[in-house]
Write a structure and sequence with these properties.
about 725 residues; five-stranded antiparallel beta sheet; 5 helices
């Protein structure tokens, strides 16, 4: 058979298998990326063949050349790939980072680690160099470092200044050097980077985020400084929220004062830090009002306006059960214009401002008590001023802003694009806009998550017990109602797609529940058994892999007498559970999660069923009262393990702690996983939650799939 005939037969055979694969893909296209990738690299559904042989469409064995076999294999892979045969695969823009080299003085030796990129070749290796007192760099490794992204330098003269940098090695050729991390001579022994702060008098460093504000490939820190604050249920005046931008050396880049017409509290100011327009520099977006002052001193709106209810203000007809007479509404801000503003990351200058969607009432920015009560469920400013925010790749390529209002009753979510210096409204979802949307009312949590739950390359908004599709239409509502904790990831690696672990505030049969992220199917649930004094279900929940004997994540809650540890099938695997139920963190050298609570990292001892302390950030404190959350946690630099950012107890500095525990694992930076990266953006929202990857990380995991990203910027 000549080559032309073999190619003709290959095309015929390819079409035969393509038809089968198309049918298969129609049924399973909703599956997660890890499922699609698995199919891509699985053996095609052909009879077994040996080298130099193939099967024709009638099962007759024919001898073929190696070149035909390659063509045939390529066709089979194309048949399996979403978006093949002329359809474009969605690729997301992502920030271009440096290698994030970090070095820790361990006393006589130095632990050095660095980033692997999501765009690096699988066979990339690294050479590590040290330059002492600006001298000629010395290569520290004998052979390129190929299996990990850390090194322990036991020969450094720490009485001198030392600078560390890496050079990637690809196909035996060294690439350009990274930015260096420099130790000053006689640097102290400590496991953190110190960022000195300029904290205003009477303020406390609170939630933080990171972004490359100036386009140099290094993260800067955006810090929310909080003064006197209030919960939405509490009357009283507050101090203006302040946002500050710091470089990692403590240089203050700018400050924003949101002004007296933005109330301070966990549910009011949600700030998004992200490169929204793809210029390689991150912007900052948040809700603003009359009197907000940008980083250049420009005032937004009316600088003299004061929309706060004065001290001693009361309102009739809105008292809560058990209360008598008029309710104190001092300090609430229930009138006046509301804005959404995008600020420049380099200077803090206002770039674009638009009216905030939704307004307090469909017909008025200054609604009456009765109007607010009819729309939101109360008339004094509690439910009406519950705000959430996020960043989502709604078109699969570029990030959009998500800003919302309400979740106990009415929920309104608006999507915005920042392009060419302008804010444009993409869509608005309103749970009260139609009979179909009414089932989405009252389903929001004190936080949200962003994930591609249907594997179409575009993000959905996981708004507690409901999910919105990328086009702003409702995908599903479970009807389980509001909750205080939310976790979305590939929690069960044996099921296709992502899963959601959520908790239920109302005292009911789904105090803890585990569902399919795409369909909302409840895979298992645990009823609340006994309510606390508040009459509610559990207030905390966490789902991470902490026990290697059970496949996938383990889940547990605090409250409503739901006790024990549950596997992905809802089976109780222990009557005990860890002492904390707050954040997970990757800290030690294995792929199991550790536990972050307050200023301490602990490890679940699955054999003894105890919680073992492994690290304490001395001199530091957590934020948000009993929530005990960090300023930020995430893979901020170094290898794939996560850092924790905490304020010092005197509020004069931030400290970013990084692990010095060796590991045998090498993964690309989690910041190049789009779901994880946008989780860092929304981590500061309301009741802070830990970030999760789009793929399973835990015992028995596969190598993470290569992200579909395009780096922009440096």
């Amino acid at each position: 058979m000549n080559e032309k005939n073999r190619i003709t037969d290959a095309i015929t055979l390819h079409q035969h298998h393509t038809d089968m694969k198309k049918s298969f893909l129609k049924k399973f296209l909703f599956s997660s990326r890890k499922y699609i990738i698995t199919r891509l690299f699985a053996t095609v559904d052909c009879p077994t063949r040996t080298l130099g042989q193939s099967w024709d469409t009638f099962g007759t064995r024919q001898t073929v050349s190696s070149s035909f076999r390659v063509i045939h294999t390529v066709f089979m892979l194309l048949a399996l790939m979403p978006g093949s045969f002329g359809q474009n695969r969605l690729v997301r823009q992502m920030e271009s980072l440096s290698r994030g080299v970090v070095a820790v003085n361990q006393g006589g030796k130095v632990f050095v680690s660095w980033r692997m990129f999501g765009t690096d070749a699988d066979n990339v290796a690294f050479n590590l160099y040290r330059s002492t007192d600006n001298g000629k760099p010395t290569k520290l490794n004998d052979n390129p470092i190929a299996n990990v992204t850390f090194f322990i330098d036991e020969k450094a003269d720490l009485a001198k200044t030392n600078a560390y940098f890496v050079r990637p090695v690809l196909n035996k050729k060294e690439q350009a050097p990274s930015t260096a991390f420099t130790f000053k001579a006689n640097s102290p022994v400590r496991q953190y980077l110190s960022i000195p702060l300029q904290t205003p008098a009477g303020y406390t460093p609170n939630d933080a985020s990171v972004g490359d504000l100036d386009g140099d490939g290094e993260y800067e820190i955006i810090l929310h400084q909080t003064g006197r604050g209030r919960d939405n249920s509490q009357a009283g005046m507050t101090d203006p929220p302040i946002l500050q931008a710091y470089k990692m050396d403590g240089t203050l880049m700018w400050s924003l004062n949101l002004g007296k017409n933005i109330r301070e509290g966990a549910h009011y100011t949600q700030f998004m830090v992200y490169d929204l327009d793809g210029d390689g520099r991150a912007e900052i977006a948040c809700k603003t009002a009359d009197g907000t002052t940008d980083g250049k001193g420009k005032v937004i709106g009316d600088a003299d306006a004061d929309w706060r209810n004065p001290e001693g203000s009361t309102a009739d007809g809105i008292a809560l059960p058990g209360e008598r007479g008029a309710r104190n509404v001092s300090g609430y801000i229930l009138k006046g214009p509301e804005y959404l503003t995008v600020f420049d990351g380099r200077t803090g200058a206002e770039l674009a401002t638009t009216k905030y969607i939704p307004s307090r009432h469909p017909e008025s920015d200054n609604p009456t008590t009765e109007q607010m009560k009819n729309v939101w469920g109360d008339g004094y400013g509690n439910r009406i001023d519950r705000f959430l925010a996020g960043v989502a790749y709604l078109d699969g390529a570029r990030p959009s802003l998500i800003f919302s209002r309400g979740y106990y009753t009415r929920s309104v979510i608006a999507a915005w694009d920042f392009r060419g210096g302008k804010l444009t409204n993409r869509w608005v979802f309103d749970s009260s806009s139609s009979d179909e949307n009414k089932k989405y009312a009252g389903q929001g949590n004190h936080q949200l998550s962003i994930a591609d739950v249907d594997a179409d390359g575009k993000d959905e908004i996981v708004y507690g017990a409901m999910v919105l599709d990328d086009n702003g239409k409702g995908l599903y509502s479970t009807g389980l109602g509001h909750g205080d904790a939310l976790h979305v990831s590939d929690l069960d690696p044996d099921r296709p797609g992502l899963e959601v672990f959520d908790i239920q505030e109302r005292f009911d049969d789904a105090g803890a529940h585990f569902r399919d992220a795409r369909t909302g199917e409840i895979l298992w649930k645990k009823p609340s058994i006994k309510a606390g004094e508040d009459g509610e279900g559990p207030g905390r929940g966490l789902s991470i892999d902490i026990d290697p004997r059970h496949r996938g994540a383990e889940s547990w809650v605090f409250g409503a007498q739901i006790t024990g540890l549950f596997n992905t099938k809802g089976e109780k695997i222990s009557d005990k559970n860890p002492r904390s139920c707050n954040f997970g963190i990757f800290w030690d050298g294995d792929v199991l999660s550790e536990l972050l609570n307050g200023n301490a990292v602990s490890k679940w001892n699955w054999e003894k069923e105890t919680t073992d302390l492994i690290f304490t950030a001395e001199g530091c404190a957590s934020n948000n009262g009993t929530k005990s959350t960090p300023a930020l946690s995430g893979d901020l630099f170094g290898d794939w393990r996560e850092e924790v950012m905490l304020r010092t107890t005197d509020n004069k500095e931030l400290r970013i702690f990084t692990t010095t525990i060796p590991t045998m694992h090498r993964f690309y930076t989690f910041m190049h996983d789009p779901q994880y990266r946008v989780a860092i953006a929304w981590q500061n929202v309301a009741y802070n939650q830990p970030p999760h990857t789009s793929f399973f990380v835990g015992e028995g995991m596969k190598q993470p799939p290569r992200p579909a990203i395009k780096l922009v910027g440096k």
